[in-house]
Write a structure and sequence with these properties.
Distance between the termini: 11 Å
Order of helices and strands: HEEEEEEEEEHEEEEEEEHEEHHHHHH
Number of strands: 18
Mean pLDDT: 84
Pfam family, one: CreD
Shape: elongated
Oligomer: single chain
Keywords: Membrane, Transmembrane, Transmembrane helix
InterPro entries: Uncharacterised_IM_CreD
Largest sheet: 10 strands, mixed
Helix content: 25-40%
Protein name: Cell envelope integrity protein CreD
Strand content: 25-35%
């Protein structure tokens, strides 16, 4: 019995299995490209954070609030019979708070990476009602209203870099001539040692309260800069936030979605309304060291994302790399099955490596010229090369043209996958089904055993 049969008698079924194995083997270097995309994306995120930090970082603004030092008689005594008196700080939130934020976002570039920073003109307008102390364990014996401060808490210490100009405070429509200090550190105003006072990132100014039972209105103008995102906390019993920005790709994040939003090519507007019961914050509370109650789990706002980032698109397409490599190989195989021509496994490998390099080229060029231009150029080059190679392998210009059209369709689907987040799975699964159905139809009468000569 002859073991090495002529090429024309070799089983096409065995060849299809071999082609599938080659596709799977070449999927491995495609996954190495996936690792490179992750590394480049991580580096880009690191550079973005550095640029954000220089501008003040992602800003989280909580306030304004009134903070007053107080003494509490705990009702307990020391061993010598002296009453135990605790010191604390009482925090009062405004009855109404309206925040208007006008944001001008721009992109800054470092090397080949870009990050979005912004200048925001923020106006906080509202009213404090009667300042009623919260219930405490013991009895409040003294509230130092003459040493009360008005404060705005920030999300981090680096946020102070984003204060572009001196804040201006109006009380009952009149300039309060307030001198703001960096940080919410009561020791600066009370004379207490720093370790016994609040020490939070933000700004604060002395604001003595002549009559805590008499409410007052306020207006605070706060020019801020930041990078990447802008968030607010609903510190008012009734909080209304209106944000306008010239950025076309916002991502609304946080504990509350906007009640109204309009996103256009030249920017967006958004509004939030948070009622008292939804904010999960009492009207007043004690805070000996921290003001975490103001913003923990309550902030909301917008991220200024870069929708043109190439890394997410390339990653999405790489998830389907095995499928599209299989489509390219199936195209070659169908030519073999229907025309009698033959392609060597080495030629399949070269064709598959071309598809792997395609993803690498898209990643490399998109960092310099943008994703759209990079994809169009590299796809055209890869399709032209693959079509010309098919014409050479099968010794037919017509077959090369058919291969060119088939590859063009495949790369068109890759583009849809790269650009479509919501429909990527649907497109990929329908494409896979269509490729299998076409192969079954074309090979429905094929002799998979290779048409061996009968004895």
């Amino acid at each position: 019995m002859e073991i090495n049969m002529p090429l024309r008698h070799r089983s096409l079924g065995l060849k299809l299995i071999l082609v599938g194995a080659l596709a799977f083997m070449l999927w491995i270097p495609a996954m190495l490209v996936y690792g490179l995309v992750f590394e480049r994306s991580t580096r880009a995120d690191s550079v973005k954070r550095e640029i954000y930090s220089l501008a003040g970082g992602e800003q989280t603004i909580s306030g304004p609030v009134i903070i007053a030092p107080a003494l509490i008689d705990t009702g307990k005594q020391r061993n010598d019979g002296e009453q135990i008196i605790d010191s604390t700080f009482l925090v009062f939130t405004p009855a109404t708070l309206s925040i208007d934020a006008d944001v001008n976002a721009t992109q800054r570039r470092r090397s080949i990476y870009e990050a979005t920073i912004y200048d925001a003109d923020i106006i906080m307008d509202g009213k404090f009602g009667p300042l009623i102390a919260p219930p405490v364990q013991g009895e409040i014996t003294e509230i130092a209203w003459d040493r009360a401060v008005i404060a705005v808490k920030f999300g981090s210490n680096e946020a102070l870099k984003g204060v572009r100009d001196t804040p201006r405070l109006l009380i009952n429509g009149k300039d309060a001539a307030a001198t703001f200090e960096p940080g919410v550190n009561m020791a600066a105003f009370t004379g207490r040692r720093a370790e016994h006072g609040l020490n939070e990132p933000g700004i604060s100014a002395l604001a003595p309260i002549p009559d805590p039972q008499q409410g007052f209105s306020f207006k605070l103008t706060l020019p801020m800069s930041g990078g990447g995102a802008l968030y607010f906390a609903p510190v008012g019993e009734e909080t209304h936030v209106a944000m306008r920005a010239n950025w076309p790709d916002p991502s609304f994040q946080g504990a509350y979605l906007p009640d109204a939003r309009v996103v256009r090519a030249d920017g967006f507007t958004a509004e939030w309304r948070i009622p008292y019961l939804a904010r999960n914050l009492p009207r007043s509370f004690t805070a000996s060291e921290r003001l975490s109650e103001l913003d923990a789990g309550k902030t909301f706002g917008a991220q200024f994302i870069d929708a043109a980032s190439p890394y997410q698109s390339v990653n999405r397409a790489l998830k389907y790399a095995l499928m599209f490599m299989g489509i390219v190989f199936l195209t070659f195989f169908l030519f073999e099955a229907t025309t009698g021509a033959r392609a060597h496994p080495a030629q399949y490998i070269l064709l598959g490596l071309t598809q792997v390099i395609f993803y690498l080229l898209v990643l490399a060029f998109s960092e310099h010229v943008g994703f759209e231009t990079a994809f169009a150029g590299t796809a055209a080059a890869t399709v032209a090369l693959s079509g010309a190679y098919a014409a050479t392998v099968f010794h037919s210009l017509w077959r090369g043209i058919i291969a060119l059209l088939a590859f063009s369709g495949a790369y068109g689907l890759i583009y849809l996958l790269m650009k479509s987040e919501d429909y990527a799975l649907l497109i990929g699964s329908v494409t896979a089904f269509g490729a299998i159905a076409l192969t079954m139809y074309v090979t429905r009468e094929l002799d998979w055993y290779g048409g061996r000569d009968k004895a």
